[in-house]
């Protein structure tokens, strides 16, 4: 997939993305602060910030954040949502061409977007932008696929009706790749349980925030929504189902 196509995949899904995508567990930020030496005084560059979900996590903890996001619709959503934070700004940049000044940030944050980046060009750009002794934190919510009827039924639904689900979904890097990518600056990894309890409307919105979910008018949309309703009715407990995630974070620096 070209970088341009990856950048524009979510342009027509911004509203659903803002409303229904998960945030990140508080334990992730606690880990960065308590075990990695990050403090609220650190300037954060949130690369591939999307609609600002990850940026808000740092802003709420007192950080100044510049959100780097090439998709105009998503960047605009972040600007509207986070307008009341005086420490927030945005720029129309990419992972390998951020438009940030050299050695200008203390922490680079990449949430959920790393699998869209070109690894070597991104590493070069991150080294340029990061201040000496700065850190890079790369993290994502990885949806659990097995272990409950809902998890397994939802995965079958995506494989059956998704437009290109098998091609683009769950393409996250493994431990070996991330160690190699950081090289000698690799400092470690951690993971945390996370989840959402959603009703049917929220479940529908979460599905439609995914770039591989067929939109209304597509031949697969109506049967997909029927199947989603059936899955929800079969699995709901007290009117909700659980979207369960393993949130993985990798951290390191560059010499």
Description of the structure:
The protein has 255 residues and is an alpha/beta fold. The chain has a domain of 178 residues: Rossmann fold, CATH 3.40.50.150. The chain has a seven-stranded mixed sheet with strand order 3-2-1-4-5-7-6. α2 packs across α10 and α7 packs antiparallel against α11.
What's the arrangement of secondary structure elements?
Elements: H1 3-8, H2 14-20, H3 26-35, E1 43-47, H4 53-60, E2 64-68, H5 72-81, E3 88-91, E4 105-111, H6 119-129, E5 130-143, H7 149-161, H8 165-168, H9 175-182, E6 186-198, H10 200-208, H11 221-235, E7 241-252
Parallel strand pairs: 1-2, 1-4, 2-3, 4-5
Antiparallel strand pairs: 5-7, 6-7
Helix pairs in contact: 2-10, 7-11
Which value, in Å, is the CA radius of gyration? 18 Å
**Global mean pLDDT:** 91
Number of helices: 11
Which structural class best describes the helix and strand composition?
A: alpha/beta
Tell me which CATH architecture of the domain at 3-144 and 170-197 and 245-252 applies here.
3-Layer(aba) Sandwich
Q: What is the level 1 CATH name of the domain at 3-144 and 170-197 and 245-252?
A: Alpha Beta
Run of helices and strands: HHHEHEHEEHEHHHEHHE
The neighbouring-strand order within the major sheet is 3-2-1-4-5-7-6
Q: In CATH, what is the homologous superfamily of the domain at 3-144 and 170-197 and 245-252?
A: Vaccinia Virus protein VP39
